[in-house]
Amino acid sequence: MSYLDFIYKRHSVRKFKNEEVPLGDIQEIITAATHAPSGKNLQNWHFVVVTNKEIIRGIADTIVKKAKAITASINDEALKTGFLSRIHHATLFTNAPVTILIFAGHYPITGLDILEAGGATREEIHRLAAASPGIQNIGAAVQTLMLAAANMGYGTCWMAGANFAGKEIADFIQFEKEGYHLVAITPLGIPEESELSSPARKPLEEIMTIL
């Protein structure tokens, strides 16, 4: 057994058993997520846990409604049809007993004010902002959440395809926290399939450089 086996238990799960997840398990998973590293220890994350099936379906309906609204005036039928045909991927969380919405708050980028005050070029400012340290915090938290869930026998799936409807989703669930916006969703539940697998990973020589 490898010390890292817990990492390889995580898979993208899209089908779940119709079994509730105990509140204590949910709280333990979210607590684990909050132990992820965050710059300046700002912990600029907020997790909205939804177990009410009516609300979960309402979130999915909100996504579909927004998708139809933003494509209504598009004349490029191929573009429109292609986008709408993928919406079901953004609502697959309805298959799970729990949906977790992850919101990100403001994060001050170190050095940004100095670059701006010093007359840096737009390219330099963009290069710094492109690293998105605030979102890196959220990524660490979501990954930790998923690893914790997998180690406890649950399945998750990292989803960001519904972010175009982030404001509408927040309005629907009446979530208000100044400066926070939706960045990811994950379903949570017991995987329907007992044997899980993940796509092959790129070889180390392609993605690692040693100096």
UniProtKB/TrEMBL annotation:
Residue intervals of the Nitroreductase domain: 7-189
InterPro entries: Nitroreductase, Nitroreductase-like, Nitroreductase/BluB
SUPFAM superfamilies (alphabetical): FMN-dependent nitroreductase-like (SSF55469)
GO molecular function, one term: oxidoreductase activity
Family annotation (Gene3D superfamilies): NADH Oxidase (3.40.109.10)
Pfam families cross-referenced by the UniProt entry: Nitroreductase (PF00881)
PANTHER family: NAD(P)H NITROREDUCTASE RV3131-RELATED, NADPH NITROREDUCTASE
Protein's recorded name: Nitroreductase
